[in-house]
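Figure 6 in text form: structure in, sequence out.
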């Protein structure tokens, strides 16, 4: 099994596409020309395009799923291969995910990518049935197969930078963390954030909360839960709140803006997201996870006839994770920027090891 770790930055914007109903949820199909029509025909690629199956919250979450779509669109634009992206259904089972991935593979899409760890059982089952199709899963590294790429990240490293930024920007030495669901993956975000904040101020007070115990309860898909969580932390005294809560994070950001305290986004550069434009002045930055880059890299590898497989891990050293500096107000905080930049360098140089739990 090959092991590759490099990520290519995927600087793609989310475009408006037509929605069409499909048997396992809402899906959209690229209207790009075929490879022959676009003059980008591959000597090795014979697939129908990329098959992308979204996580809870679906496209439009301005975070995790939209980052995956950005990579989908970048690959589509560069290679002209098209594809189909498919939405999840409320309350669906693993069997529904198996059916979704099976339909994509049977239809000839290659690669087929499950966006989120919840697809792990489905990817394992379906990949075994379609050995000539490359599958990808984001945020899980338990599926070991020659035709599967496990695309994972050092989320704790990006979260460490978020913690440094939060502690430096806080005027009360009191910050907050809101996780969508109480699972090991989100514990990595919390652990890095706390370590980063305490590296600045060991005595800093940190509020910490998980919105739900399971994804089925809506922890990643309920802005109202995020809003209520942020409200409680602000009332307790926090003046910077970092969320790792998917779509629920929109509620965190809107509440923070309404109370004129800082929010820190996640996965995508949430300062630049159109649907969050009304709140962007209060988005200090975002802990980035280059999900789009992972999707793009896998599609590129398949298109070029050299499919990635095994664990593909994004870190600060290969731009798989990072911290955004888009907000001019953040850039103006030179002491905050300097502290974050130094922390990044120290992590990359091995001077700092970030806790993952």
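Output sequence:
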């Amino acid at each position: 099994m090959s092991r590759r770790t490099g990520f290519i930055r995927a600087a793609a914007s989310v475009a408006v596409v037509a929605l069409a109903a499909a048997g396992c949820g809402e899906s959209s199909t690229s209207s790009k020309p075929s490879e022959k029509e676009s003059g980008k025909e591959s000597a090795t690629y014979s697939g129908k395009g990329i098959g992308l199956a979204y996580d809870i919250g679906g496209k439009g979450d301005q975070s995790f799923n939209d980052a995956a779509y950005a990579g989908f669109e970048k690959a589509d634009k560069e290679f002209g291969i098209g594809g189909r992206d498919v939405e999840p259904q409320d309350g669906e089972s693993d069997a529904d995910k198996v059916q979704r991935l099976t339909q994509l593979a049977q239809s000839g899409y290659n690669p087929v990518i499950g966006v989120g760890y919840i697809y792990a059982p489905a990817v394992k089952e379906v990949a075994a049935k379609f050995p000539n199709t490359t599958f990808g899963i984001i945020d899980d590294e338990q599926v070991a197969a020659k035709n599967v790429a496990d695309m994972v990240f050092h989320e704790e490293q990006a979260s460490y930078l978020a913690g440094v930024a939060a502690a430096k920007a806080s005027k009360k030495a009191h910050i907050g963390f809101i996780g969508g669901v109480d699972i090991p993956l989100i514990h990595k975000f919390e652990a890095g954030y706390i370590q980063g904040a305490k590296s600045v101020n060991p005595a800093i007070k940190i509020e910490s909360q998980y919105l739900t115990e399971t994804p089925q309860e809506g922890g990643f898909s309920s802005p109202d839960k995020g809003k209520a969580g942020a409200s409680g932390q602000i009332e307790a005294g926090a003046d910077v709140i970092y969320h790792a809560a998917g779509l629920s994070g929109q509620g965190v950001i809107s509440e923070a803006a309404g109370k004129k305290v800082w929010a820190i986004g996640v996965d995508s550069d949430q300062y630049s997201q159109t649907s969050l434009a009304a709140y962007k002045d209060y988005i200090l930055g975002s802990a980035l996870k280059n999900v789009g880059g992972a999707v793009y890299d896998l599609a590129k590898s398949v298109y070029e006839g050299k499919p990635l497989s095994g664990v593909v891990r994004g870190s600060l050293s290969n731009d798989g994770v990072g911290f955004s500096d888009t907000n001019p107000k953040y850039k103006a905080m030179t002491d905050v920027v300097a502290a974050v930049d130094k922390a990044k360098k120290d992590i990359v140089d091995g001077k700092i090891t970030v806790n993952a739990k």
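Caption detail: Residues 1-26, 29-39 have pLDDT under 50 and may be disordered.
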